[in-house]
Amino acid sequence: MGKGGTSIPDEEWERFLREAEAGTQGAPEEPSARARIVTQRLREETGRPEGWRTHQLPRRRRGNGWYAVGLLVVVGLLVVALDPGRVAGWFGGGGGSGESAPLAAESVRPDLPPATEAAAQLPTAEQPFRGSPAARWGDGPAGIRVPAARATGWMSKEQVAQALDRTRAFLAASSLDPGVLYGERPTKAIALINPHQQDVQDYLATAFRAPSRESDPLLLFSRFAKTKVRLVGDVVKTRGRITYREGKRGAVEVTTDVTYVYPVVRAAAGSDELARTIVRREVVMSWDNPAKVVVEPGTFSLVSYKVDTANGGCDTFTGYLTPEFSAERTVTGTGDGPEVDPYDRSTSMDARMREAGEAGCGTATRS
Asked: Would residue 86 be called left, alpha or beta, if left means φ above 0 and alpha means ψ between -120 and 50 degrees?
């Protein structure tokens, strides 16, 4: 993308590839995820760091009000473009409770967790977020704050604005798209990820073909098995923000930190017990200068991602979120990890991962 926001001419792109293959001095580098892979916790510990394809996920178990903790996976970096306008209306409409006024957009990390006084109010099909802080959150993409653009790194102000909009489009395509939520492959979201980042492409292929502890699509995408549960209403509540800074090689490094709240019931006819699955993801991506990094136009590279999940499944590596209802919780008992408020955004994801340690699953203080 040029300074005016135009796409790279075909002849320039071909030149980049030829020079990269020939090893020409100053040619764009092909991003290597493997070279930069090491988890946050491994960076804080001694011993030999593990590679991205050999990482170990935290131990997971079921529990009453369990709280599953995902893993930070560090990968490579890169740049991009794509228009999110079409996703703005995916979840734009009434699913709020009408209990109180909507919160202002989250511009910085809050100092305290949200109040709990309404927690005793039970949700209903008409008010699926009742008794939850999410009742005052935004609907779908509207709950994700996009900051004002400024010229950063190799990008002009206009290019940064486009990158931020397309970042939010990726979040919508990966965690809000109705088809994806019901188990479809997140084709639009995957199309935005740099195809030259081979380790990531291998992970994605394996994650959907044969999901496992090591290759779990839920690290990046929200998916439910439609034969097991169905979403209540057409609104997913969100709260979070996008920030950015100049990264390596003058790239624009964008960090997203968003909590998603999904109200669900069992898929069986006549089921009316409502449960909520709460997912918080921090995804970091790099929008790189194509003169310095080999990048397919219209794609970006992942730098890192971290995931926390409440009532989404423990030791159930099926590729789908698997919420529990009252009967399952009675059978499975209580989680052995720490108590956690899944709506608390006052704690950074790094701190949350450190607190969780290797427990993997704990007890959510509310749903």
From this structure: alpha
Task: Give just the sign of the alpha carbon dihedral 324, 326, 327, 330.
Answer: positive
Q: Residue 237's closest CA among 139, 348, 161, 330?
A: 139
Provide the 3-class DSSP secondary structure of residue 233.
coil
The total number of residues shown for the chain amounts to 367
Q: What is the pTM of this model?
A: 0.77
110-168 residue pLDDT tens: 999 998 866 668 899 999 999 999 999 999 999 999 999 999 999 999 999 999 999 99
For residue 189, being part of any structural domain is answered with yes
Instruction: Residue 124: give the domain boundaries.
Output: 10-98+119-364
Rounded CA separation 309/220 (Å): 12
When divided into structural domains, the chain yields a total of 1
pLDDT tens digits for 68-90? 444 444 443 333 333 343 333 34
Please name the residue ranges forming H helices in the chain: 10-22, 40-43, 157-175, 178-181, 187-191, 198-209, 326-332, 349-356
- Asked, for residue 112, whether it belongs to a domain, the answer is no
Structure tokens belonging to residue 285: 């991506």
